[in-house]
């Protein structure tokens, strides 16, 4: 077998994989290298602002500090993160599916109206954060409408209400994703069973509950898991709206990483927290993979 | 009888449109209010109860554009977003093509791997990126961000363009191959012209992503390469004073992405959603 023939056969067999390789290598390096670096820095005491040569090897001290009481805000922030994620994902899911069902009812023009509904999703998150921060001030936009309709004004920058304010802002920004996906999914499901049910005199609610929702179930599960992961990751809007405050009322994990690493300047402990967040996301990924494999059937 | 049903049905549909339009207005009110307030004078911005009718002024825009050196940050954003978009497309389009047209071992597993890898949180890798940037001397350079954005943008592009390529019938390509075209020239003559709308929409989408990115540039740039998205931070400690300017900056920096997303709306709805739907 000549070399030329061998090369030709080789490239034919591996051609598809060769096309993927540049992407795969780039992404793998960009993910794996920082992870290894994080593992390394998590074992060092390294002050933000000083050079790496001044970092001191301390073994597992940073891990001990984070998980066993040294970092007194850690468990608080973990709890806050879970509450924040549940409110945000469920809130945007309910709003998203409501709007999608409504838009699906329109005989025409649904596409262009959907495009306007998703404007919050394509806005710069840092602007969204700062905008809502102004809206939630005492004499601001939100209280203006609360006073008109309910005759109350709320101090949103207080410990009890800050997390709710943050959730409202993030729901506004993330619900469009659900609107978009569910609108497209509803347009794609076969219409015959729905029409047949309508002829048989089934009510709207029955059609929704027994036909539409079961058909959407895989996509609902996939998008819910994806949004949950996104919610755990979100840093920009929470950071700009409240920066973790007042006190630590909105200090979710992503904000806590920033505070430990860059405000307390402990990059080592910050790395431990970073790895912990990745660990949480890996757990959720396993659910995502399971669901995707069921849906795609491979 | 039939006509009567039609009339009542038409009224119902008209009513439905009315509800949808009202809901859309309420939904976008925060944005509309920001756009309105950008044109308010210093006193009107703080007025409570809110002033809805006023004579527009451009003073906030003038202050933001010339007082804060907006063009410098805009230039940085473009110097990062445009090269990153081109680089991303060059690297990931062959992969997307491969996923669409070839059958190979563990294909869906590779595809899934891309999806999983891009779930890495930006805030989780920021310390490592800071460390790498410092040791390579790339801190506060455009090049650093151009490369780092690839981590999220490549998987994202593969994910959505695969759906688009699958919409181009394989028969066209097969016909060209039978007529004696090589695979490469079939790609160039048949697929590329058909793929141009989808690829340009993807390019706009990538541009939106780079334009909006906050976490990475916030920690990895200081004076030289700082993009527009991080400039809102200048106002964070002065939120009591500069409302008008904040709204003007917000209006300017969200307008391009909103216009782009309206341009590519069909593509948005078709591919972004279908990526997750079926394989």
Can you walk through the features of this model?
The complex is a heterodimer of chains A (298) and B (279). By secondary structure, chain A is an all-alpha fold. Chain A has a domain at 83-252: MetI-like (MetI-like fold, Orthogonal Bundle), CATH 1.10.3720. Helices cover 75% and strands 1% of the residues of chain A. Chain A contains 13 helices and two strands. Chain A has helices spanning 3-41, 61-67, 74-105, 110-117, 119-122, 125-135, 141-150, 162-188, 192-199, 204-233, 236-241, 253-263, 267-296, and strands at 44-45, 56-57. Chain A has a two-stranded antiparallel ribbon with strand order 1-2. Chain A starts with a helix and ends with a helix. With 279 residues, chain B is mainly α. Chain B is built from 13 helices and no strands. In chain B, 43% of the residues are buried. The mean pLDDT of chain B is 86. Classes of the chains: A mainly alpha (298), B mainly alpha (279). Chains A and B meet through helix 1, helix 3, helix 4, helix 5 and helix 6 of A and helix 1, helix 4, helix 5, helix 6 and helix 8 of B.
Question: In a few lines, what is going on in this structure?
Answer:
The complex is a heterodimer of chains A (298) and B (279). Chain A has 298 residues and is an all-alpha fold.
What topology does this entry show?
The complex is a heterodimer of chains A (298) and B (279).
Chain A: H1 3-41, E1 44-45, E2 56-57, H2 61-67, H3 74-105, H4 110-117, H5 119-122, H6 125-135, H7 141-150, H8 162-188, H9 192-199, H10 204-233, H11 236-241, H12 253-263, H13 267-296
Antiparallel strand pairs in A: 1-2
Chain B: H1 2-37, H2 42-46, H3 59-67, H4 70-101, H5 107-117, H6 122-136, H7 142-148, H8 150-166, H9 170-178, H10 183-212, H11 215-220, H12 243-263, H13 265-277
Helix pairs in contact in B: 3-12, 4-7, 4-8, 4-10, 5-8, 8-10, 8-13, 9-10, 10-12
């Amino acid at each position: 077998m000549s070399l030329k023939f061998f090369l030709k056969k080789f490239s034919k067999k591996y051609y598809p994989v060769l096309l993927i390789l540049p992407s795969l290598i780039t992404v793998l390096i960009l993910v794996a290298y920082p992870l290894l670096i994080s593992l390394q820095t998590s074992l060092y005491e390294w002050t933000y602002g000083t050079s790496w040569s001044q970092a001191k090897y301390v073994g597992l001290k940073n891990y001990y500090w984070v998980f066993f009481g040294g970092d007194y805000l850690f468990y608080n922030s973990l709890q806050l993160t879970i509450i924040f994620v549940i409110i945000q994902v469920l809130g945007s899911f309910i709003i998203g599916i409501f709007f999608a069902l409504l838009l699906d009812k329109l005989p025409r023009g649904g596409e262009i109206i959907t495009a306007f509904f998703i404007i919050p999703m394509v806005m710069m998150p840092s602007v969204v954060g700062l905008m809502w921060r102004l809206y939630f001030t005492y004499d601001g936009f939100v209280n203006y409408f609360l006073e008109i309709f309910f005759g109350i004004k709320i101090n949103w920058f207080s410990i009890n209400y800050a997390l709710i304010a943050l959730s409202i802002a993030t729901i506004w920004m993330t619900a469009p994703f659900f609107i978009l996906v569910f609108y497209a999914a509803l347009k794609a499901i076969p219409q015959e069973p729905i029409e047949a049910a309508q002829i048989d005199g089934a009510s709207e609610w029955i059609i929704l509950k027994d036909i539409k929702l079961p058909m959407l179930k895989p996509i609902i599960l996939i998008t819910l898991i994806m949004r949950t992961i996104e919610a755990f990751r979100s840093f920009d809007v929470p950071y700009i709206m409240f920066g973790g405050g007042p006190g630590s009322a909105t200090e979710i994990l992503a904000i806590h990483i920033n505070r430990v690493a860059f405000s307390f300047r402990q990059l080592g402990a910050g790395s431990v927290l970073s790895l912990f967040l990745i660990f949480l996301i890996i757990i959720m990924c396993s659910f995502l993979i399971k669901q995707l494999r069921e849906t795609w059937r491979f | 009888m039939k006509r009567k049903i039609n009339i009542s049905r038409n009224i119902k549909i008209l009513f439905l449109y009315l509800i949808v339009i009202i809901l859309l207005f309420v939904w976008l009110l925060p944005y509309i209010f920001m756009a309105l307030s950008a044109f308010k004078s210093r006193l009107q911005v703080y007025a409570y109860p809110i002033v809805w009718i006023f004579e527009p002024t451009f003073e906030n825009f003038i202050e933001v554009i010339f007082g804060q050196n907006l063009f410098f940050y805009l230039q940085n954003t473009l110097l990062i977003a445009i090269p990153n978009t081109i680089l991303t497309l060059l690297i990931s389009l062959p992969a997307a093509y491969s996923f669409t047209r070839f059958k190979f071992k563990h294909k869906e597993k590779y595809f899934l791997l891309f999806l999983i890898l891009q779930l890495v949180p930006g805030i989780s890798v920021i310390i490592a990126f800071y460390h790498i940037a410092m040791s390579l001397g790339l801190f506060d350079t455009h090049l650093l961000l151009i490369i780092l954005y690839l981590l999220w943008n490549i998987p994202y592009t593969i994910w959505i363009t695969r759906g688009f390529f699958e919409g181009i019938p394989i028969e066209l390509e097969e016909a060209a191959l039978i007529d004696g075209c090589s695979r490469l020239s079939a790609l160039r003559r048949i697929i590329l012209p058909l793929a141009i709308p989808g690829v340009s929409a993807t390019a706009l989408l990538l541009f939106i992503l780079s334009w909006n990115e906050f976490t990475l540039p916030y920690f990895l740039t200081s004076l030289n390469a700082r993009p527009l998205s991080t400039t809102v931070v200048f106002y964070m400690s002065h939120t009591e004073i500069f409302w008008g300017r904040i709204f003007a900056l917000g209006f300017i920096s969200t307008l391009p992405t909103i216009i782009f997303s309206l341009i590519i709306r069909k593509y948005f709805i078709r591919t972004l959603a279908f990526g997750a739907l079926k394989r």
